Amino acid sequence: MEAHEVVELVKQALPDCEVQVQVDGNHYMVVVVGEVFEGLSTIKRQQLINKALFSRVLDGTIHALHPKAFTPAEWAARQG
């Protein structure tokens, strides 16, 4: 599965978010930035991303998923 396909699946589930994907074989690091994560715990944030990609994990297309979620303010603080 290509990175752009993962981006599209996540954007369908979380349409107002910025999505970045890094692929290493069938391991996927997915970074999602959006207001939707405001006030949510890390686990709840990851669950939203996992839900968007669950069918691909279940069918084995994605072997390992590493989701990271940030609000825009958190992402900006991390960038510099």
How does this structure look, described?
The protein has 80 residues and is α+β, with helices and mostly antiparallel strands. 45% of the residues lie in helices and 26% in strands. The chain has helices spanning 3-13, 42-58, 72-79, and strands at 18-24, 27-33, 64-70. The mean pLDDT is 95.
> Helix amount, in percent?
40-55%
CATH top level label: Alpha Beta
Let me know the CATH homologous superfamily. BolA-like
Give the amount of beta strand, in percent.
Answer: 25-35%
Largest sheet: 3 strands, mixed
Please give the count of helices: 3
Stretches where pLDDT is under 50 for at least 5 consecutive residues are none
Helix and strand composition category:
alpha+beta
The spatial strand order of the largest sheet comes to: 1-2-3
CATH topology: GMP Synthetase, Chain A, domain 3
Could you tell me the number of beta strands?
3
Radius of gyration: 12 Å
Mean pLDDT: 95
How would you describe the shape? Answer: globular
Order of helices and strands: HEEHEH
Distance between the termini: 32 Å
CATH architecture: 2-Layer Sandwich
